[in-house]
């Protein structure tokens, strides 16, 4: 059985008065109940006040429901259909473009960086086990990255009868109207249809939209007759949609184990539902962050990853926390840190700067590759004086860096907590992502903020449309 991730706040407990944690236990219990009662599938009978809608809490039970559906309906279930579409892509194309922004992009990227080979796109097709090269676009208005990818596809895809020279795409947008993604889709769709032919079978099979039940992209997809179109269900908000087709389709194309991913998430929901405070990673994580913010003014949360493969998970979390709780002039500011890299850029500030930060170390306990050892060299070549460490492995050096850094923070009463991940695999990622989504909703309940919706993002869009259409008509 794969291992659970653990949350260990013990180092931070030396930096606060314990009674503060005891004092919020009742509020935490209530927030847990309110979060779970939100689940549309549970019939508690409780009415949710208007101020707390929309209730996009469908993500909470989704992993369990999808697993159950797959067990009952097999190939006809959503998982079965996603797998079939992904098999077509893996078998027939060698490059796959994922178009989407915000919640329709960051989760897939997090899975790709955490779970695929760190040099995935540079491997040969057989070294990649036929998983296509993966590219992310449609998440910006950057002329050069768009043009660069289109150019690469054009230069490397000249003979469409050769699988190594074929490419496909997914366009992911719940609303179906987000301009960055829509414009990118038009560009890439034209390129793809130009290559295979507008009415070709390939153009209908190698474009896979993921979108809500209504909207421009849904209309367009119906008209185009794409073989596969996957839904983003109502009741699951954009940044909470990693366990819908939004995250699962790209994950399946990447060859990831969807069952393990969903099982990790379902198990985390169960722990959240049943474990008492003190053994509940969601409630303990929220409680600590809340107390440090309310009682000590620490309103910056450092998601301090030890190792580069979790950086995109951190960026996914930055978005989740910012868009969910950054409302009514409230909400902590999340910052992703990658150590040891950032010890050489941000470390100074964390050690001696403003006392406004709570640090959560995200530590992977076992590397995916066998540990590398610092090589031993002949004495006359030991000018870098590394022979003194030559019995050590890279993970041992990292462990020393983590311990040394935490000690340095503890010495000056800077609070740190540890999130311990046994190993980077689908089960761990499922747990971690679900834990952070649940924690965000619980914290919203605690501070009286509706964690769903992002009304503040509309302001820029409205202005942009006005500017673009000014003078027309
Ligand atoms: O969390 C959210 O809802 C947002 O970040 C959306 O995911 C993002 O704006 C993209 O929206 P859409 O999927 O409708 O294109």
* Secondary structure category: alpha/beta
Helix content: 40-55%
Attached small molecules = 5-phosphoarabinonic acid
Helices, by number, come to: 18
- Report the strand count: 10
In terms of quaternary structure, the protein is single chain
Termini separation: 64 Å
CATH architecture title of the largest domain: 3-Layer(aba) Sandwich
- CATH structural fold name of the largest domain: Rossmann fold
> What is the number of domains?
2
SSE arrangement, N to C: EHHHHHEHEHEHHEHEHHHEHEHEHEHH
Index terms:
alpha/beta; binds 5-phosphoarabinonic acid; five-stranded mixed sheet; 18 helices; 473 residues; 10 strands; Rossmann fold; globular; 2 domains; five-stranded parallel sheet; 47% helix
Summarize the structure.
This protein is an alpha/beta fold. The protein contains 18 helices and ten strands.
Verbal overview:
Strands 1-10-9-7-8 form a 5-stranded mixed sheet, sandwiched between helices. A 5-stranded parallel sheet has the order 3-2-4-5-6, with helices on both faces. It is globular and about 65 Å long. It has helices at 10-13, 18-23, 25-37, 62-73, 78-92, 106-115, 143-156, 179-196, 201-205, 216-224, 245-253, 258-274, 281-296, 311-325, 347-352, 394-411, 426-447, 458-469, and strands at 6-8, 95-99, 133-137, 167-173, 207-211, 230-231, 300-306, 333-339, 357-366, 416-423. The longest helix is centred in the C-terminal third of the chain and has 22 residues, at 426-447. Helix content is 47%, strand content 12%. The protein has 2 domains: 6-44 and 263-449, Rossmann fold, CATH 3.40.50.10490; 62-256, Glucose-6-phosphate isomerase like protein, domain 1 (Rossmann fold, 3-Layer(aba) Sandwich), CATH 3.40.50.10490. Strand 2, helix 6 and strand 3 form a beta-alpha-beta unit. It starts with 5 loop residues before the first strand and ends with a helix. By secondary structure, it is of the alpha/beta class. Helix 3 crosses helix 17. It is built from 18 helices and 10 strands. The structure holds 5-phosphoarabinonic acid (PA5). Residues 101-104, 173-175, 178, 181, 237-239, 323, 454 line the site of 5-phosphoarabinonic acid (PA5).
